[in-house]
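Handout, section 3.2

Students often ask what a structure token actually looks like in practice. Rather than define it abstractly, here is a full record for ATP synthase subunit delta, mitochondrial. The first block is the sequence as you would receive it.
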Amino acid sequence: MSALRLTSSFRAATRSVAAARVARRTYADVADGALKLSLVLPHQAIYSASGVTQVNIPASTGDMGILANHVASIEALRPGVVEVIEEGGKVNKWFVSTGFATVHGNNSLTINAVEAYPLEQFSLEAVRAGLAEANKVIASSAPEAEKAEAKIELDVFEALQAALAK
């Protein structure tokens, strides 16, 4: 096959792929309907609902709101608050340590978290005490492994403190 024929075949294939992309949904499309949400931990499902208006997640790239008809994606989660807004306006909040959120094309969202707890289970005083302890370990002459663990704790406690201060 000649190089010219290969080039024209490649161009035709590229045009058909580009046309297929144009027909796909984009971020600007209007949200219509409700989300089906599953919030799961490795050992149990902690929340499941089909009448969810919006879910706000602490994505590693920044906070993100997910509505119905959202573009399918997978987002890594950082420590922070998952906020679920149900159709009736009820708001549920969980603090997650890390995990992944998977937005499916069928208006469903699955959040797989390593750990998650209702935000109201935390006290600001306990969080501040944990922050102080983590900072003490980081500033000490502790082994590097302990300091690394304390840095992770520090990230989580800082995120918790910010969530509770709101």
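Discussion prompt for tutorial groups: The radius of gyration is 22 Å. How would you have guessed this from the sequence alone?
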